[in-house]
Design brief:
elongated, alpha/beta
Length: 323
Amino acid sequence: MTPSTHERIPVGISACLMGENVRFNGSHKRSRFCTDVLSRYFDFRPVCPEVAIGLGTPREPIRLVASSSDDESPRAVGVSNPDLDVTAPLSNYADQCADSMQDLCGFILMQKSPSCGLFEVKRYLSNGHPEGKTSGVFARRLRERLPLLPIEEAGRLNDAALRENFMVRVYAYQDWQTFLQEPVTAAGLIAFHSRYKYLVMAHSPDAYRSIGRLLSDLSGPLEQIATDYFQQLMSALAKPATRQRHTNALMHLQGYLKKILSPADKQELRNLIDEYHEGIIPLVVPLTLLKHHLNHHEEMNAYARQQVYLNPHPYELGLRNTL
């Protein structure tokens, strides 16, 4: 999966992260990772909910005010002028985005924003005292409308594991949208999941078993089964893979080589998998050797070589170099 062989994937993004001067004080919060790196792979669709609903730039800042300490749906009001209530417009704009951007395969939002923040947005009581953290109004509604869409905050993409997990989900989401361009058949659904088997195993063994049960009986309404499958797939991939689960997936894939490799080659691969499991080397090291052997004996390993787990996102990003 490289920019030269695949079209860029449509992904929504907070406009300030693209360097647009749309923040309340007329500034931006450009993310160089997004503009300089991810823009090679993503066709970014910038939005600023606050500007979109008619607030000027610069403008009075807004904040989230709750009616009580257990209020999970605080209102977005002006800091200086609490009579300025933009809760409904922000929520309505999220509905517009959900309806008009159905081709999106992901969304990157600005952290801590009362409109766009997904996590850790300050929540205040009416007396001005801070009271816990919550989600921004636009972000909350967007997630409600598109619960399976990969959505992440730009700040969290600084974490290697969260960054890799987001990219896994975006590419899986896009793969499914491509799959749906043709009529769904039982054979097609089985073939699709066959490629994702070990990626799901690395993220959620429970989902791996649950999906297996779901696909063991395709006698029911196929469209509903496909819908249930995608829900389980994206829910599974939303759980970050662990070192133990990666090791388990690597060991299963190594099994396809047990009758092909020499004893020395098998031991070398096993040693690298063990060293990864112990935290001595990153995931990319045993993966690279595993892929080398699978490609070298490609005529005997078609099933293993098609596994999305081996290349869930562009290799050039180096996302597994630090896992």
